[in-house]
Design a protein that fits this description.
Blueprint lengths: L1 H22 L13 E4 L8 E5 L1 H11 L8 E5 L2 E5 L2 E2 L4 E5 L3 E5 L8 E2 L15 E2 L3 E4 L2 E7 L2 E4 L3 H8 L11 E4 L2 E11 L4 E6 L2 E11 L8 E6 L2 E12 L2 E5 L4 H7 L3 E13 L3 E5 L7 E21 L7 E22 L17 E22 L6 E13 L10 E4 L1 E9 L19
Parallel strand pairs: 1-3, 2-4, 3-6, 4-7, 5-10, 6-11, 7-12, 10-13, 11-14, 12-14, 13-15, 14-16, 15-17, 16-18, 17-19, 18-20, 19-21, 20-22, 21-22, 22-23, 23-24, 24-25, 24-26, 25-27
Antiparallel strand pairs: 8-9
C-alpha cells in the first residue's frame, strides 16, 4: 500500500515539474556559454571587403570545427568587415559569433544558394510548387548551437528576391535568412537581421529554442516577409526583441493542409515577452494560417504593437484541420493599428488540390486581456464558419481608442460564428461576446 501511494505521489510530482517547466520556458531558456576553442573566419581565407565570395571559407571553417564537438564545442569568430557569402550549414556544439561592425552579406546570385526539397509538413515551397532555395545560415538535426554576437549584422539583401517575387520570375521559393530544422537547444541572440528574402528566423521541427535581444527589419513594402516563425516547434521563447516586417512580425505555424495533418507535429509551449512589433501589411503576431499540425499553449506577455494592418490575428480555413487553442495574450499596447483583433476562418490558400474539404479547424480557448490601444480603426473582426465556429473566446480589461468613435460609420466589432464572453471592454463588443464567464476549462481537440 505504501509503495502504491509513493508511486502516485511521484507521478503527481513529475507532472507538476513538467507543467512548471512548460510554463516558464523563457525563465529556463539557455543563455550562450563560452566555448573552450575558438577560430576566426580569417584563418580560412575569408576577405571582408563586401565583394569577395566567402562561402567556401564558412563551409571549411564549420567542417573543421566539427572535430571539437566532443571537446566542449567551438566558436567561429567573425571580425568587423563585410563578409559576402552564399548559403552554408552549421554544426552541433558550435557558436557563430559576429563582432560589432561584422556584417554577413547574402549573395544576390541564385547560383550561390543551394536548392533543397520542400518541408514534409508543407509539400511544396511557400511561394511556388516544388523545391526551395536553402536559407543563408542553416542547421539540420543539430544540438546545442548558438548564433550570437556583439550586435553584429546579418543582411539578406532581399530586394533582389522581392523584385523576383513581385515579377513572378522566381525559379524556386525564396530562401530565409536563418533556418533550423529538427534541432534542439538553439539560441539566437544579440544580433541585427536586415532584409530577409522571406522569413528572418525559421525554426521548424525544433525543441528548446531561445531567441533573445534580436532586431529584425525589412522595408514595409517588402512582400510577405516575416520576422520570427516558430513552426511545428515546442518550448520556444522569444523575448526582448524588436521586429519590423513587411508582412508579419511573429507568426506561429505548424504545416499546411494534408501535409501538416499527416506530419502531425504541433507548435506548443511558446512564450513571447517584451517585444516591439510592426507587421506593415499583415499582423504583429499571427497564428496560422498554416496550422494543420496544431498550435497550443501560447503565452504573449508584454508587446508594443504599432503601424500594423492588424495587431493579433488568428487565421485558418476549411481544409486546414488542426487547432489553435489555449492562447493567452496580455499586457499589450497598440498604436496606429488597422484591426486590433482578427480571427478569420476563411483565410489563405491550399498547397494543391489534395486537401480534405471536410478537415475543419478548431479555434477555441483564446483569452485576450489587459490591452490598450490608440488610433485603432476596427476593434475586432471575428469570422468563424458555420461548420466550425470559434468558441470560448474571452475578452477582459480592454480599452481601445477608435479613429471613428461616435461617427455614423462606427462599426468597431464585427462577429459571425463566434461564441465567447467579455468584461470591461471598450468599445462594447458584439452580442456574441457580451456575456462574461471567467472560467472555461481547457479545449478538447
Amino acid at each position: 500500500m505504501f509503495c502504491q501511494v509513493a508511486l502516485v505521489l511521484l507521478l503527481a510530482l513529475s507532472c507538476l515539474i513538467r507543467s512548471h517547466s512548460a510554463g516558464n520556458v523563457c525563465d529556463l531558456g539557455r543563455r550562450p556559454s563560452s566555448r573552450p576553442h575558438s577560430v576566426s573566419i580569417l584563418e580560412f581565407g575569408a576577405v571582408g571587403d563586401g565583394k569577395t565570395l566567402n562561402t567556401l571559407a564558412f563551409q571549411n571553417a564549420v567542417f573543421y570545427l566539427k572535430s571539437f564537438a566532443d571537446k566542449g564545442g567551438a566558436q567561429l569568430y567573425v571580425p568587423p568587415g563585410r563578409w559576402l557569402t552564399g548559403s552554408f550549414n552549421l554544426t552541433s556544439h558550435l557558436t557563430l559569433f559576429l563582432e560589432k561592425d561584422a556584417i554577413i552579406l547574402a549573395s544576390q546570385d541564385p547560383s550561390h544558394w543551394q536548392v533543397v526539397d520542400p518541408l514534409p509538413s508543407y509539400g511544396r515551397g511557400i511561394d511556388l510548387p516544388g523545391k526551395r532555395y536553402m536559407s543563408l545560415i542553416n542547421g539540420y538535426e543539430l544540438h546545442d548551437v548558438v548564433v550570437t554576437g556583439d550586435n553584429g549584422t546579418i543582411d539578406g539583401q532581399g530586394l533582389f528576391w522581392w523584385d523576383r517575387f513581385n515579377s513572378h520570375s522566381l525559379k524556386y521559393s525564396r530562401p530565409h535568412l536563418v533556418e533550423f530544422v529538427s534541432s534542439e537547444n538553439v539560441v539566437v541572440s544579440n544580433l541585427t537581421f536586415l532584409n530577409a528574402p522571406a522569413y528572418t528566423i525559421h525554426t521548424v521541427y525544433c525543441s528548446h529554442v531561445y531567441i533573445h535581444r534580436v532586431t529584425a527589419n525589412t522595408s514595409p513594402e517588402s512582400p510577405y516577409t516575416i520576422g520570427i516563425v516558430p513552426d511545428s516547434s515546442d518550448n520556444v521563447c522569444i523575448q526582448d526583441s524588436t521586429i519590423n516586417m513587411g508582412y508579419d512580425a511573429i507568426s506561429l505555424k505548424s504545416g499546411w493542409d494534408q501535409y501538416g495533418i499527416s506530419f502531425a507535429r504541433a507548435t506548443a509551449n511558446v512564450q513571447i515577452r517584451d517585444v516591439h512589433l510592426r507587421g506593415a501589411s499583415g499582423s504583429s503576431i499571427s497564428f496560422g494560417s498554416e496550422m494543420s499540425g496544431g498550435i497550443s499553449d501560447v503565452v504573449v506577455l508584454g508587446a508594443y504593437i504599432h503601424n500594423s494592418l492588424s495587431g493579433i490575428a488568428f487565421r485558418t480555413t476549411k481544409g486546414r484541420g488542426g487547432y489553435i487553442k489555449e492562447i493567452d495574450v496580455s499586457d499589450i499596447h497598440m498604436v496606429n493599428v488597422g484591426t486590433a483583433f482578427l480571427a478569420n476562418g476563411s483565410f489563405g490558400t491550399h498547397p494543391d488540390s489534395g486537401f480534405d474539404k471536410n478537415a475543419f479547424p478548431l479555434v477555441s480557448h483564446v483569452r485576450l486581456h489587459d490591452i490598450v490601444g490608440e488610433n485603432i480603426s476596427v476593434a475586432g473582426d471575428f469570422f468563424g464558419t458555420e461548420e466550425s465556429p470559434f468558441t470560448s473566446v474571452v475578452l477582459s480589461n480592454i480599452s481601445l481608442s477608435m479613429t471613428n468613435s461616435g461617427s455614423p460609420d462606427d462599426d468597431s466589432w464585427r462577429c459571425l460564428y463566434v461564441e465567447g464572453s467579455s468584461e470591461s471592454v471598450v468599445p462594447e463588443p458584439c452580442s456574441e461576446l457580451e456575456s462574461y464567464e471567467s472560467s472555461y476549462g481547457r479545449a478538447v481537440a
